[in-house]
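#struct-pred
JK: can someone run the complex with flavin mononucleotide? inputs below
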Amino acid sequence: MLLLNASGCLDALTAPDVASSLDAFVTKTVTPDPRKGNVPVRIAETDFGMLNAIGLANPGRDVFLAETLPQLRALNVPLWVSVGGFAANEYAETCAQLDDVTIELNLSCPNVDEAPESAAEIVAACREATANPLYAKVSPHSWDMGETVRAVEAAGADGISLVNTLRGVALDARLRPKLARGAGGYSGPALKPVALAAVLAARSATELPIVGMGGVCTGRDALELIACGATHVALGTVLFADPDAPARVREELDAEATRAGFDGPTDAFGIAVHGVARPAN
Ligand SMILES: Cc1cc2nc3c(=O)[nH]c(=O)nc-3n(C[C@H](O)[C@H](O)[C@H](O)COP(=O)(O)O)c2cc1C
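RT: done, structure tokens with the ligand placed:
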């Protein structure tokens, strides 16, 4: 089992120690052209989680490849690069330029107008462009998670990441949206049941590795994702409040597994799906 950060929730270059405490570092989504992102206000607190409408702000593919990636490589942490775009060929062109990294295709950002192609079409185009491991990060808004997962697997995905944020709105005292864009991506503790349901449905549809994320704050949360069929676990919003979360969650996860009578966390793999544990893939 790998412990990762969720894309966009950690800047490895400003917090290299936090990145090194993970089994692999996942970059913020990279798009072909530089993006300033949405106008402020782009972040809002809510009672049970956080809303963001960053809008994929990033320096763009050329600067990422020439400047950011070499600096990230120097950290000596395995790298996953999150790739975004607005058409299948844009995703594929970035994939073709990446060596020696795992690629996570962001097929599910709620803060930009999405690519018109389906998730499976984008995965198929990227599969042709690269032999690197390819994870498809699909949306929790998917109306049939099993069908989505089977389609991206058939298109050549090596793994599934889920969930991205859910679309949400928060209002200020004057009853106007707190975010300039109106809606944003809702993340944090309230997302956990959504993540568990998505992972459970995905695990029922595929044997591929799954990175589970959404509202993980404790070792117990991570163990629950593993029980629903997550192979790996990613920490997102929790990292903003607690940069020491990777070490803490690992420790808590081992303790929770022992308390539950397992030899280790992976013994819980898939229990919620099948009633009995199966070997982790
Ligand atoms: C501020 C912020 C920025 C994010 N940026 C990205 C991104 O660039 N690409 C992406 O795939 N997901 C992005 N996400 C979504 C997270 O990777 C993750 O899927 C989501 O927040 C759920 O996990 P959490 O509840 O543990 O935060 C972002 C989330 C937040 C809060």
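RT: quick notes.
Residues 3-38+54-167+191-274 form a domain with the TIM Barrel fold (CATH 3.20.20.70).
Residues 4 and 92 are 24 Å apart (CA to CA).
JK: thanks, will look after standup
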